[in-house]
C-alpha cells in the first residue's frame, strides 16, 4: 500500500464511515475546568483538530464517575452539567467533517484522593488498608460507564471509546496480578473479562445500533498476559461487540520478548486474528507519513496519531501534502508548541512527558 491509501474511507459496523484512516488518539491534556467541564482551552484544541482532516477524533479520557478521577483538570462526563461543553465539542467536530468519540475512563485503584478520587481496587492487596470494591460497586461503576455513553450520545457524539488500557479499572480487572477476587468478576479469564464485556454490551443495548463503540487495549505492565488478551480480543472480534480496537502500544514496531509469540511483532499477534467487521488500529511512535502507511501493510485498518498530532495539529493534512512528511524532532521548545496553538495548561502537561519539551523552555 502507499501513503495515499491512508486517505481511503473506512466503513464501520455501526454508524457512518471514517472519511480516511487517521484517528486522533485520546490525549489527556489536563486543560478542563476543575469540575470536569470543558474549558475554553478544550474548545480551542477541538476547533484546531476539527479543521485537520482526521477521520475520527477521540476526546481526552473523561471521568464516568467523579470518584474515578486520575488527573487534575480531567474532562468529565459523569454529570449532566458537562453536557453543554460536550455538545459544543461534538458539534465542532461534526462541522469539520470528522467522526467523534468520547473516551470513557475510570481510574480504579489509581484514582487520586488529592483530587477527590476514591480508589476502587479489584483486590484488597493492591493498596494498603483499602478493601477491594464489592460486587455491587463493580456493577455501579459498570452502569456509570453505560450512563456516560448515553450522555455522549445525547451530546451528539458518534460513539465512545472504552478505556481498557494502562492499568485503569477495566485493565486492572483483566490482570491476574491485580485481580484476586472470588466473585463473578475474578478468577477465570472469563470472569476477569466480564466487567469489560458487560460495559460494552450494556452500551450497545442502551445506545442502539447506530452508535459506535471502540475499545482501547494495552499489553505492557500491570501483570497483563498477552496470550489472555489475545483470547479475549478474538472473542470480541468474533462476536463483533465493538466497531474498532485501539491497540495502545508504546512502539507500534515492538517485538514480543518471551512466551509463545516470542520474536513476532506485538501488533501481528492481533492483526492475524479473524476480525469479521471489526476494525483494528494501533498507536505507538507513528511520527511520519511513511510509518503510518507501513502500518496498513502490517494489517492495520487505521492509525492512531498521538504525539505527532500534538506537534503538528493537522498531521493528516501534512501527510496529504507531503508523502515523505516527518514530525519535528523531539524535544521541542515550549515556544514551538505555543506558536502551534497549545495552551499553557497543555504545555505544562507535556512537560511531564519524558523528552517532549526542552528543559527550561
In short:
The protein is of the alpha/beta class and 361 residues long.
Q: Write the H/E string, N to C.
A: EHEHEHEHHEHEHEHEHHHH
CATH class annotation of the largest domain: Alpha Beta
- Helix percentage range: 25-40%
Spatial separation of the terminal alpha carbons? 40 Å
Shape: globular
Instruction: Compute the CA-based radius of gyration.
Output: 19 Å
Structure report:
This is 2,4-dienoyl-CoA reductase. Residues 5-321 form the NADH:flavin oxidoreductase/NADH oxidase N-terminal domain. This protein has 361 residues and is α/β, with parallel strands linked by helices. The protein folds into 2 domains: 3-326, Aldolase class I (TIM Barrel), CATH 3.20.20.70; 328-361, no CATH class. It is built from 12 helices and 8 strands. An 8-stranded parallel barrel has the order 1-2-3-4-5-6-7-8, surrounded by 5 helices. Helix 1 (40-50) runs parallel beside helix 2 and helix 2 (83-95) crosses helix 3 (135-155). It is globular. The mean pLDDT is 96.
What keyword list fits this structure?
2 domains; alpha/beta; 361 residues; eight-stranded parallel β-barrel; oxidoreductase; TIM Barrel
Give a topology summary.
Elements: E1 22-24, H1 40-50, E2 56-63, H2 83-95, E3 99-105, H3 135-155, E4 159-164, H4 169-174, H5 189-207, E5 212-217, H6 226-238, E6 244-248, H7 266-271, E7 279-283, H8 289-297, E8 302-305, H9 307-311, H10 315-321, H11 334-340, H12 344-351
Parallel strand pairs: 1-2, 1-8, 2-3, 3-4, 4-5, 5-6, 6-7, 7-8
Amino acid at each position: 500500500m502507499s501513503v495515499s491509501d491512508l486517505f481511503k474511507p473506512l466503513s464501520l459496523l455501526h454508524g457512518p464511515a471514517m472519511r480516511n484512516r487517521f484517528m486522533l488518539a485520546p490525549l489527556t491534556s489536563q486543560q478542563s475546568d476543575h469540575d470536569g467541564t470543558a474549558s475554553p482551552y478544550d474548545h480551542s484544541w477541538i476547533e484546531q483538530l476539527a479543521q485537520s482532516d482526521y477521520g475520527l477524533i477521540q476526546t481526552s479520557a473523561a471521568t464516568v464517575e467523579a470518584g474515578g478521577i486520575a488527573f487534575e483538570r480531567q474532562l468529565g462526563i459523569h454529570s449532566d452539567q458537562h453536557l453543554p461543553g460536550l455538545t459544543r465539542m461534538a458539534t465542532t467536530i461534526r462541522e469539520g467533517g470528522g467522526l467523534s468519540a468520547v473516551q470513557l475512563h475510570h481510574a480504579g485503584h489509581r484514582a487520586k484522593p488529592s483530587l477527590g478520587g476514591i480508589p476502587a481496587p479489584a483486590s484488597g492487596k493492591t493498596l494498603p488498608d483499602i478493601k477491594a470494591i464489592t460486587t455491587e460497586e463493580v456493577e455501579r461503576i459498570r452502569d456509570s460507564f453505560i450512563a456516560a455513553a448515553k450522555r455522549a450520545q445525547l451530546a451528539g457524539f458518534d460513539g465512545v471509546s472504552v478505556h481498557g488500557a494502562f492499568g485503569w479499572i477495566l485493565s486492572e480487572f483483566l490482570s491476574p496480578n491485580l485481580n484476586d477476587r472470588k466473585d463473578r468478576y475474578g478468577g477465570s479469564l472469563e470472569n476477569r473479562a466480564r466487567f469489560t464485556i458487560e460495559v460494552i454490551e450494556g452500551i450497545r443495548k442502551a445506545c442502539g445500533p447506530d452508535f459506535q463503540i471502540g475499545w482501547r487495549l494495552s499489553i505492557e505492565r500491570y501483570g497483563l498476559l498477552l496470550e489472555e488478551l489475545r483470547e479475549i480480543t478474538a472473542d470480541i472480534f468474533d462476536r463483533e461487540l465493538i466497531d474498532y480496537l485501539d491497540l495502545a502500544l508504546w512502539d507500534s514496531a515492538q517485538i514480543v520478548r518471551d512466551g509463545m509469540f516470542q520474536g513476532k511483532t506485538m501488533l501481528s499477534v492481533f492483526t492475524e486474528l479473524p476480525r469479521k467487521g471489526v476494525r483494528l488500529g494501533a498507536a505507538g511512535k507513528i511520527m511520519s507519513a511513511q510509518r503510518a502507511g507501513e502500518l496498513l501493510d502490517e494489517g492495520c485498518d487505521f492509525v492512531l496519531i498521538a504525539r505527532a498530532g500534538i506537534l503538528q495539529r493537522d498531521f493528516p493534512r501534512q501527510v496529504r501534502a507531503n508523502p515523505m512528511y516527518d514530525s519535528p524532532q523531539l524535544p521541542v521548545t515550549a515556544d514551538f508548541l505555543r506558536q502551534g496553538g497549545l495552551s499553557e495548561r497543555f504545555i505544562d502537561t507535556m512537560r511531564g512527558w519524558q523528552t517532549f519539551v526542552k528543559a527550561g523552555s
